[in-house]
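ok, trying the design again with the full structure, not the truncated one.
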């Protein structure tokens, strides 16, 4: 009940957030890949062609597969008519645990995409402390959104609200990957309206691991938010640990996120949210890398979940 009160008062406190709530809660609120300037977002311009070129350069150290081509019927004559979703995998598939990292599900939250080459560099070091993990990275999860600098895909849909009957090709691709890879945990890279970095850990994730991530970000002197991006005060600095109640709340409000889909399959999701208004690009990109690094360094074990 406290959480419900916090949620309601959070929405009540942030008038702008309240007004925008229907857009952020519904599946396909836009006409197409619209560019919005809500809640102080400072968009990072990202050259998608250069991004693909950079990512595919890692093919010498990772297995790189094109998972799907996403059509862009809204493209201008000179622009590509479709864009690939790529998957990169570490080559030690026999590792005890599997991590799936998802970047760019919201196409206008570019810091997570910029973190991917750094995460690949980190994985390429093959640190002994990370040896227990096989890692798969899916990027960009919403390529048309990235091409247009939009939260939405070509149909105006928010992919991260489409994990029930998956109307969008992007959500189907991601669901199929989760079913085939059966990851032990998911890290989803986002940006948000809160003031500083925050991490959301779903019901099947570990609060202890979440605290370790926030501590590691603080240690590197990156600002951490005391407020959730929805506007309410966080009980723990920088961390929102969701319980089963959140799964229920998302279900009854038809808020079908990747995290809820994963929870129903017993998989914990760690959603990294950098500050999308921060002027310092490093403050936006580094926390995602630090989060992955911290989660990899935690000894993979079956008990790495608080949920039953
Ligand atoms: Zn997002």
């Amino acid at each position: 009940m406290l959480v419900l009160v916090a949620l309601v008062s959070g929405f009540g406190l942030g008038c702008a957030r309240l007004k925008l709530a229907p857009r952020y809660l519904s599946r396909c609120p836009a006409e197409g890949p619209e560019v919005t300037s809500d809640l102080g977002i400072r968009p990072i311009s990202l050259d998608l062609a250069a991004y693909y070129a950079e990512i595919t350069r890692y093919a010498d150290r990772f297995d790189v597969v094109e998972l799907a081509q996403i059509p862009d019927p809204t493209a201008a004559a000179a622009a590509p008519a479709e864009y690939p979703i790529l998957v990169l995998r570490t080559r030690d598939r026999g590792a005890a645990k599997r991590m799936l990292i998802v970047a760019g599900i919201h196409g206008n939250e570019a810091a997570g995409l910029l973190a991917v080459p750094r995460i690949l560099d980190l994985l390429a070091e093959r640190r002994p402390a990370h040896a227990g993990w096989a890692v798969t990275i899916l990027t960009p999860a919403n390529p048309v959104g990235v091409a247009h600098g939009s939260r939405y895909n070509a149909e105006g849909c928010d992919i991260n609200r489409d994990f029930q009957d998956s109307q969008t090709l992007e959500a189907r691709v991601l669901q199929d990957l989760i079913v085939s890879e059966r990851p032990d945990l998911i890290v989803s890279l986002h940006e948000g309206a809160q003031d500083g970095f925050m991490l959301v850990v779903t019901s099947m994730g570990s609060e202890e691991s979440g605290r370790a991530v926030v501590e590691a970000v603080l240690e590197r002197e990156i600002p951490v938010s005391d407020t959730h991006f929805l506007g309410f005060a966080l009980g723990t600095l920088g961390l929102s640990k969701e319980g089963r109640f959140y799964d229920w709340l998302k279900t009854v409000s038809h808020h079908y996120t990747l995290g809820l889909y994963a929870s129903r399959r017993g998989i914990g999701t760690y959603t990294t949210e950098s500050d999308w208004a921060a002027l310092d690009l490093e403050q936006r990109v580094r926390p995602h890398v630090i989060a992955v690094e911290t989660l990899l360094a935690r000894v993979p074990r079956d008990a790495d979940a608080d949920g039953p």
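Keeping the full-length input from now on. The longest strand covers residues 63-71.
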